[in-house]
Design a protein that fits this description.
Layout: H1 8-20, E1 26-32, H2 42-47, E2 52-58, H3 65-77, E3 81-84, H4 95-113, E4 121-127, H5 133-141, E5 159-163, E6 177-181, H6 193-202, H7 212-226, H8 228-235, E7 240-241, E8 244-245, H9 248-258, H10 270-282
Parallel strand pairs: 1-2, 1-4, 2-3, 4-6
Antiparallel strand pairs: 5-6, 7-8
Length: 303
């Protein structure tokens, strides 16, 4: 499965990010907590090398909690700030102000020492498609400020959104934000095709350009390594036959049979089975399953 998806607007977005970074204090990059390394755009490292960075491990409610904690420790060791959350929950984004205060405290202190009123923090929010940026920003702003949809590539242009901290107790506690929302952007080429496959499994790459049966088979192969019990528990199918692990195609057929997905002549509807498996994994109906975990060699469970 050779996955390449880099529409023209992504090239434009990269240029826009580069031109606007000079006016921001903090770069907030949303990562998918299920696959933080694969969902981390390597271009941002180069573009934002001189900026304070905060990695928001979004969709933490869909990921394995213990593995997410490992990723937090991993990124902190590299000198980055981190924050796991589920941006669909209003209360979950409240810790962001505290984390940004921590990041910006030295600058705010310098401004106060000079008798200057602290200006609003300018933060750029970046992330790959479908990682939840618009939902994240809407929760912060308390209103539907950014376009949202359950498909990648909805936000098309730069948007500045004002967020005011109404619960601050004093000058050092007050953090007002000017948030720059940006379109989701992938990088031009996946050097490691496994990265592209993991992104496609979580919906970061548009399903319409992929062979979903093959993609579902890749997901099954990953689950057999990471959490084979999840398949058995959800679909009531065995993953092995007489001590030998079944192929991904056999398991996908079994899933279709267990759900009654039959076409004319009793043939299993593999396309429908594939769509069901992908949708249910993305909704955590198979459990909170992370596709990557940090290791000394940088390998992931799906390799």
């Amino acid at each position: 499965m050779n996955i390449q998806w880099y529409p023209g607007h992504m090239t434009k977005t990269k240029r826009m990010l580069q031109s606007q970074l000079g006016v921001v204090d903090v770069v907030i990059e949303l990562l998918d907590a299920r696959l933080p390394l694969s969902s981390k755009n390597p271009d941002i490292d180069e573009l934002a090398a001189n900026k304070q960075r905060l990695f928001v491990l979004n969709k933490a409610d869909l990921a394995d909690k213990a593995i997410t904690a490992q990723w937090e420790a991993y990124f902190r060791r590299l000198g980055f700030f981190t924050l796991p959350l589920d941006s669909t929950q209003r209360a979950a984004v409240k810790p962001l102000a505290e984390r940004v205060r921590e990041i910006m405290r030295p600058k705010v202190e310098r401004q106060l020492e000079r008798g200057r009123v602290s200006a609003p923090v300018r933060a750029m929010v970046v992330g790959i498609p479908n990682v939840g940026k618009s939902t994240f920003i809407n929760q912060l702003a308390g209103r539907a400020s950014a376009a949202t949809a359950d498909r990648p590539g909805v936000t098309r242009g730069r948007q500045w959104i004002k967020v005011r901290d109404m619960q601050a107790r004093g000058a050092m506690d007050a953090i007002d934000f000017d948030l720059m929302d940006t379109p989701g952007v992938l990088w031009p080429k996946f050097d490691d095709q496994q990265v592209g496959i993991r992104l496609a499994v979580t919906g970061a790459v548009n399903d319409l350009i992929l062979d979903r049966i093959t993609l579902a088979e890749h997901l099954i192969d990953m689950l057999l390594v990471i959490n084979p019990v999840s398949i058995v528990a959800r679909y009531k199918v065995n993953t092995d036959l007489q001590g030998v692990t079944k192929s991904a195609r056999q398991i996908l057929e079994n899933i279709g049979e267990s759900r009654g997905f039959k076409m004319k002549g009793g043939v299993v509807d593999l396309e429908r089975a594939a769509i069901t498996l992908l949708d249910e994994y993305r909704a955590a109906k198979l459990g909170r399953i992370s596709l990557e975990k940090p290791t000394p060699g940088g390998s992931t469970p799906g390799d």
